[in-house]
Amino acid sequence: MSLADQFERVGVVVGAVLLVALPLSLAVDAVVGPATPWWQLLVVLAPGFVVGWAAATDDLPVAYGSVWFVCFAGYVLSVATISLLELVPVYEHTTSVLVVLVASFAVAVVADGYR
């Protein structure tokens, strides 16, 4: 494997960690609240590492572009909706924020299907 391929795989893993961490950080903040438990960083970063590793080894059933699009579009849509509905701070509106996250990601998945 060439050095360029290795760097590409590292980039895919790092990108997936960052992209998956965006919505997970919002969900964890809504559930846990302002306290920062020791395990929060692990909960936010570990799923992205798993997704990135699967994408880098071609074991992911969807394209990496779809992961990128759904995570980014879902996060932007959910943050915009949370701001529009004035659900800040998110830990005071846990149920509403989680419903907004699920709906935003459903819209992002449908939009990715048409993309």
Automatic annotation (TrEMBL):
Has UniProt tagged this entry with the keyword Membrane?
yes
Transmembrane feature ranges: 37-56, 63-85, 97-114
The alphabetical list of record keywords is: Membrane, Transmembrane, Transmembrane helix
Could you tell me what this protein is called?
Uncharacterized protein
Organism equals Halobacterium hubeiense
